[in-house]
Amino acid sequence: MTFTVESKSSVSATGTWPYSMDCAYSCSYQKGTVRQGDTATLWLSGLNNILVDNIDVYVRSNKSSGAGTFNVWGDGKTLASISGTFKEWTGEYDNTSFHPITVFSGEKVPVNELSVSLIGLTNSLHIEKFVIQYDQVSAKTVTLMNGTQVYATKTEEASGEGIWLPSLTNQGNWHFEGWSEREFWTLTTPPEIHAPGNKFYPSEDVTLWAVYRYDPGQETEYVTDLQSGVYMYVNSQNEIALTGVPVDGIMDFAPINQQDENQYYTIDFVAPDTAYITHTLSGIPVGYTASMTMIDKPSPWLVYHNGEETIFYTKNKGKTYVLWLAATEDYVEFYSGLMPATLGHSPMRLIQPASAKEESYSCHPEQQSIEMVPENEDKQYIIPLGIYQLIIRNGQKYLRL
């Protein structure tokens, strides 16, 4: 690889370099000229562990002076450092021709990041180009495992080009997340993964395991038996839920989300037809004023309940005002708060929030289910645990390899 200085902040590259390489150059004075106290540096990254064999920097001096220090770093470590005058390096000063100064040579060193710098000690040295000789490491192979089966084996077309990671289909309630560099059976915290659809750049032959996240989903069941507890108040037709606390006389709404705690309300049924409503997350009560606007003060709500239908309402001057979530037919305008209405058939419902569940991740979703097997007229449960099986039979536990 040859990097020729074009300006104080750029070089042009010729030769062959790793596919993933990035390059940068900077000189504190101008182009490649380094006076006393000036610095010029070439930075390379994404080299994919090339084996550096030799580095030459082509330099000329002033007519009778020029000295400096060359430093070479690889992956944050000093690989070489030389100081001296141009005359000591080449035998004489020369302000017309560029001469190669070998700043690194010898044992081949694998590097992913490399920098070469010149610090001026005496006016002046002038850099023409950097020439780096190296050996390319061999292309790497990635084995992709899906459970206990080899899904695919992919080899880079050329070293450093990487391989594209595929996406896999879900397995029932186990949703594919990505690829892990380590195999595991069950984790309750998100593992480090490589996302599908991206390139993976291996530094050696490696195996990746498909990672799945368990998501049982959430079935919506409307409450038919009223008891004090935490609920969500929803419009089943428009699929929106009451959310938040009273502000400026009205409430807010949002699409039904059984994991959203802002949609949770503690409902205390002090009688079959009377309840108090409190926003669970904030502890702020949900009530109403004499002018039939919403307020953050406790108020007794009347309850209309018929099968799945549940409506909270109040009466004022002979009229019925319902705590309502409504939308126009085109779903452009919504309203959430008290409005006059008659009791009867409506889409208002109570549902229970999603039960808190612990996240579960696995490279082996095929071994995570519980199997129930009849044996000698009794029932036994077989639970896979890695390479073992936990068997529960008649209350007794056994471990089978």
Largest sheet composition:
12 strands, antiparallel
The portion of residues assigned to helices is under 10%
Termini Cα gap: 56 Å
Number of strands: 34
What structural class is derived from the secondary structure elements? mainly beta
β-sheet strand percentage: over 45%
Radius of gyration: 36 Å
In DSSP terms (H or I, runs of 4 or more residues), the helix count works out at 1
Q: Poorly predicted ranges (pLDDT <50, ≥5 residues)?
A: 370-378
Shape: elongated
Mean pLDDT over all positions: 88
Task: Give a short synopsis of this structure.
The protein has 401 residues and is an all-beta fold. The protein is 1% helix and 55% strand.
Structure description:
This protein has 401 residues and is mostly beta strands. The chain contains 1 helix and 34 strands. Strands 18, 19, 20, 21, 22, 23, 24, 25, 26, 27, 28 and 29 form a 12-stranded antiparallel β-sheet that branches. It is elongated, with a radius of gyration of 36 Å. Mean pLDDT is 88; it is low at 370-378.
